[in-house]
Design a protein that fits this description.
Layout (H helix, E strand, L loop, with lengths): L8 E3 L5 E3 L4 E5 L6 H4 L5 E7 L2 H15 L3 E7 L9 H8 L8 E6 L1 H14 L3 E5 L11 E6 L2 E6 L5 E5 H4 L4 H12 L1 H15 L5 H22 L3 H21 L8 H16 L6 H20 L10 H12 L3 H11 L4 H13 L1 H9 L4 H10 L4 H19 L9 H7 L3 H12 L1
Parallel strand pairs: 3-10, 4-5, 4-6, 6-7, 7-10
Antiparallel strand pairs: 1-2, 8-9
The structure holds zinc ion (ZN) (2 copies).
The site of one zinc ion has 7 residues, from helix 8.
Length: 435
Amino acid sequence: MALPKLPARIECACGAVHTCDIKSVVCGKNAVAAVPELLAEQRALVLVTDGNTAPLAGDALAAALTEAGHTVHRAHFDTTAVVVPNEEAVAHIQAQLTEEVTALVGVGSGVINDLCKYVSCEAGLPYLIVATAPSMDGYASKGAAMILGGMKVTTSAPPPAWIVGDTALLATAPADMLRSGIGDLLGKYSCLNDWKLSALINGEPFCQEIYDMTAACADAAARDTAAILARDEEAVGRLFEGLVVVGIAMALAGNSRPASGSEHHLSHFYEIVGLQRGVDYLAHGIDVGYGTLVTCRLRQMVRTALPESTPFDPQLWRLKVGVVYGPTAPAVAELQAKTGFYDEAKRLERCAFIKENWQQICSLLAEAPSGEEIAAMLSAAGFTEREYYRTYGSRMIGESIVWAKDLKDRYTLFNMLEDLGVLESLAGAYVKEYL
Ligand SMILES: [Zn+2]
Ligand SMILES: [Zn+2]
């Protein structure tokens, strides 16, 4: 798969003009050697690493940059555990920003990339990311996934100016990181379907070009799974490129719609509620993989009959949000007040539309792979349902199906099921059938 030509500006058939600000993507063997040259004009840098990525590549890169005449300030997180992308971590990096610094360099994957993106946006500086794992699609995206004020938020921030994927380095990533990258790409089968669904129900802007570009990345990941797990450098390189292309798809769309839907909302639920309750959660793309299995099964389950809608009870909703989200409940309620998804008049309007167009909606839902197909893809990639159930248990999985949507302002399958008043009963049926 070839990376789209950069920088991209596409006057598209969908009516929109799509743009992308990434200067360059370098992917290949020993790509990390290109970093000093890519940064030739940036004399003073802040280099962000953690206890895993410093020995892996960060220390060597610091030496190479210093050798090439750069001043390197180190913002190092002295831990091998996952850094939480919160206010404290942001301040740790900001402490290294002096006036002479003109760019940031991150060595890492998900969290380090998000932190660099966030801090460089706040400081108005470009950043370069040396990817250490093909574990998620956020490298090239326009948003930074942060945990601020206890909420999982995606703040708007430019993508990195430079993305470097060294295939030799990427192929040494831990097996779970490889699995996570595959899971994040397989998740596109679910979110792309949600995008089409919302375009139909809410008239949300939809672009077939971006849809196809993203779907091709999911197909490639499914095809390459065995070679990726065998650490074939070319296959791992293609996985990385697929993840970058999805990031570019998000940049082109101007939001994360092409890459994140109901399956991602489940993963965000496990992260937020997991942090609150002290329950361990799985790597992002692994949660997304299991989330995709759940949503694809639900798409099948709902197709069997047109559900009867029941009225929405706002008081009961607020009460339950309080129980599920605890200290985060006020932020959740505030967000949903903004979306207007629970505005009764609008809900009834959507319900009427959904019922009138039920056959069309059923065929749309059937475009997503079946639960059996997703289960086979996941199993080939080393996912076991037992891992998912053991980590979260039936109660939390049931809760996530009902409540994950409330963390977000994006209409998905879950919102449609809530509109129809069947989400809770379907969650119950799911738990009964599969757990
Ligand atoms: Zn993702
Ligand atoms: Zn378009």
